Amino acid sequence: MKSIVVYYSLTENTKFLAKEIAKFVNADLLELKPEKEISKGLTKYLWGGKQVFMKEKPKLNKIDKKIENYDQIFIGTPVWAWTFTPPIRTFLSENKIAGKKVYLFASHEGGLGKTLEDLKKQLENNKQISKIDFYKPLENIEKCKKQIAEWLEIKS
Which of 40, 85, 101, 118 could make an S-S bridge to 72, C-beta 3.0–4.6 Å? Predict the structure, then answer.
């Protein structure tokens, strides 16, 4: 079974998780990068929140993987304004994912909101295997590695 981990990460938390998951299940990695990234300072909350509430779909840099070639897809996002990020929205709108085994994961700093439920709704035409969230991954590296191992040993 061919697997891929698709993710967006502004502050490296979700990137850390994606790399760990990819190592655990021997998956390819696909990092989504907007052509125009928002700043990482305090203004990220303002501009990121605006993009979420306006349901914006930022243009992404070229993607070098074909999603239809994968049977199992892991999708990871940080939580922005209690849901998934605009780059993930763009990816999902540009790639009609159907008939795949899908795993969802999110990183957050205390408020998961409806992130994973919102993502699940976007991927209804798939076999949704499992979902998980991680609290401040880069501050809890060992705990997150253990969570990943427990999550995927049971689910894979």
Answer: 101
